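Weekly structure sync, notes
Attendees: PL (lead), two postdocs, one rotation student
Agenda item 3: pending single-chain targets
PL asked that the sequence for the first pending target be pasted directly into the notes so everyone works from the same version. It is reproduced below exactly as submitted, 375 residues in total.
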Amino acid sequence: MNKYLIAATMIASAWWANWSVAQELTMGSKAPKLEVSRFIKGDTVKGFEQGKTYVVEFWATWCGPCLATIPHLTKLQKEYKDVTFIGVAIYEEDQEKVEAFVEKMGDKMDYRVALDSVAEDAQPDDGAMVKGWMNPAEQRGIPASFIVNGDGVIAWIGHPGEIDEPLEQIATGKWDLVAEVKKAKAIVAERKKIEAIMTKVSKLYHEFQETGDSEELLKELDAAAKEIPARATRFSLIKFQALSGPKGNVDQALQLGAEILESDVGTDAEVLNNIAWMLVSPQRDKTADPKLLKFALKVAMKADDLQKFEDPSIADTVAKAYFDNGQLEKAVETQERVVKLIPGTELENDPDVKKRLRQYKRALDASKTEPAAKK
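Predicted structure, written out during the meeting:
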């Protein structure tokens, strides 16, 4: 079972939350220098000539998505003979492997290939092309492509799999660079707004984890949902955690929980499992309110049904929810199902699974002897 609280997962993967570097290289910027150590295929290109169009594509031999785009780039190079394609290998631990790889590819990689210029004993991500192109453009992954137009200006930045349309328009003089730059700036502005919101939410969330106080976090989550409506459901999941905490509001949590079940994530078994486990987890500082425990059982059972009762992680949550609700026979029965399902799964070697089964059985046995003991 996923024992991490769902809000922690959401915030840990928050969009751009750990990035504060200002973007310096954008569409419309003058193209930086080509600072490669050498060309291992094709004629050497020393700089961008006036009136010529170039595609500078960043890749690596170990990057699966990069290798998948090589045939497409070869096809485009044959189609646009007047455009110079340059594949720059970056982030390589051993640059000697690049030349052997390119030789093996032969005509399948039919365009110029160069190596990033990396100082001796420097790390692969300290290459001149990484520092001069990728980092300033905030391109955090590869493959990544830049189209340089006849004025030596970057006319487009993006994934090579999406390069066809902009390349065709740039090569034929139809590309409206001013309009495209305006669009790109709007995207950057929106991203920075989201980054600021997520940074604040993250800060308040960590404060909530430390103190249990959720008032400020709840206010910010409501504001964030209005600012970024497309992410409102995600914010509601974090809000549910805050409301269902020791200092939260049970009735409001239940109302929000019902709304979540009716939303688009209400049929996502993994999300439902996380919500339920959040309420019954042994790691909680305080046992959840009885109303919330009943809700946890309802949510866990729905997740179990969605997975056709074959997911041991979810069944484990269901059993714990039964136990916390005092339905001991159901808890034992369900945990026994978990034990039967775990072979070959990540739970197979988890000692807590069988430990919980023993706990449930002891509680059930004790409940059967209580009446006699009272007499």
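Discussion points:
- The longest strand covers residues 53-59.
- The radius of gyration is 28 Å.
Action: rotation student to compare against the earlier draft before next sync.
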